[in-house]
Amino acid sequence: MQPNTDEQTIHEFQNSLLSWYEHNKRDLPWRQDQDPYKVWVSEIMLQQTKVDTVIPYFHHFMTQFPTPEDLAYADEEQVMKAWEGLGYYSRVRNLQTAVKEVVEEYGGKVPEERTSFSSLKGVGPYTAGAVLSIAYEKPEPAVDGNVMRVFSRIFNISDDIGKAKTRKRFESLVAPFLEDTEPSRFNQAVMELGALVCTPKSPGCLLCPVQEFCEARKAGTAEDLPVKPKKKAPKAKDMAAAVVKNEYGQILIHQRGESGLLARLWEFPNIEVPEGRERIETLEHYLAEEYGVNVQVKEPVQKVEHVFSHLIWYITVFEAWTTDSTADDTASRWVSWEETAEYAFPVSHQKILEEQKEKEASSWI
DNA sequence: AATTCGGGGTT
DNA sequence: AACCCAGAATT
User: Fold this and answer.
1) Is A127 within 7 A of strand C by CB distance?
2) N or C: which end of chain A has fewer CB within 10 A?
3) How far is the CA of A211 from the C1' of C4 (A)?
4) What angle do CA A211, A147, A14 make, to 5 degrees?
5) Is the bond into A226 cis (omega within 30 degrees of 0)?
6) pTM higher than 0.70
7) pLDDT recorded at residue A4
8) Cβ of A267 < 7 Å from strand C?
9) What confidence score (pLDDT) does residue A235 get?
């Protein structure tokens, strides 16, 4: 069953897969209906993120921002807070930008045309296909990691799925399978099969509803597919962070810039310590230079290790005191421990926040 | 075409 | 530790 699959075989494949799907699909919150806005939000959350992780965020997000209008007009700070801990934060900023455009340019209705929908921020080839097929029953391929895994095995294809060209090959490969079926069900069925049966390691071929169509199973290559690019080891960075306190029981927090890592999130003032430099000196100099506060930095109070996809932070946390706390500006504020709850922090700095807040509370006894 | 962007769960 | 995840934007 190499590319150029006859109609009869495709029809049998669809029947076997869809029958399995109806009996085995998970009852997920974004499968209650085909509301385009809900489907869209779920697809953005699910990018590079597991279903189990997304579920609680999805519930909360839809309660807080039930309609495109609610999200479009929401305060960016609250939107970021709703995404706190989910990662890849540009997703939610792009989503709000895109939803604003839908409200302003399309009267609040998610566009049905691929060209229109694809032009929105954060909507790539996969998300466009997923939303248009699931919400509007458009026969559009929605090729994600699951789909490439399943079809690389079905057709025994060893192209590197990290290449952009490979995704296009799978899109044209999947296209004929979307004929004479419900695109919403078919696309979700392939992904569900990839998530539950045709898994990356030790795939459940014996339980697979389309095992008779699978070339990799015949060839014994299922475990070796798909072929993926090798990933580089994350790069280590030595960081120093400060919990700066003033005489009013407040602490200093800082908002990260518009772009780059953890953009727009709040954090404790921190700086990378170059190899061979003293942490305390580097930190004191930075606090004076960047925030205009003269502080006395004491011994380290905490160590935090945080792993990202492409780097590792080794953060040494220091406590610091000042009596010349500067005025708030747009990127930095003096807040009480209670007020930190209103701000979105990356998990790395949540670790600092939790431990230092706890320490503060116990010192009152 | 390669790199950047998070975080958590498996193996 | 390495791998993987309903990827997209940027370089």
Assistant:
1) yes
2) C
3) 23
4) 50
5) yes
6) yes
7) 63
8) no
9) 93
Domains, chain A, with CATH or none: 7-224 (1.10.340.30), 235-362 (3.90.79.10)
Amino acid, single-letter form, for residue A273: V
Helix (H, G, I), strand (E, B) or coil at A198: coil
Within 13 Å, how many C-alpha atoms sit on residue A278's CB side? 6
Alpha carbons A131 and A142: distance in angstroms, whole number: 9
Any strand C atom closer than 7 Å to A121 CB: yes
A295 CA, C5 C1': Å apart: 43
Q: Give alpha helix (H) positions in A106-157.
A: 114-118, 125-136, 145-154
Q: Give the pair of three-digit tokens for residue A46.
A: 């699910």
Structure tokens at A185: 């069900």
H/E element holding A74? none
Name the residue type at position A241. Answer: A
Nucleotides of B under 7 A from a protein CB: 1-9, 11
Residue at shortest CA–C1' distance from B11: A201
Stretches where chain A sits below pLDDT 70 are: 1-4, 364-365
CA at A13, C1' at C8: how many angstroms apart? 31
Q: Which two tokens stand for residue A279?
A: 């942490």
Residue–nucleotide distance: A295 CA to C1 C1' (Å): 40
Instruction: Please list the active-site residues of A.
Output: 43
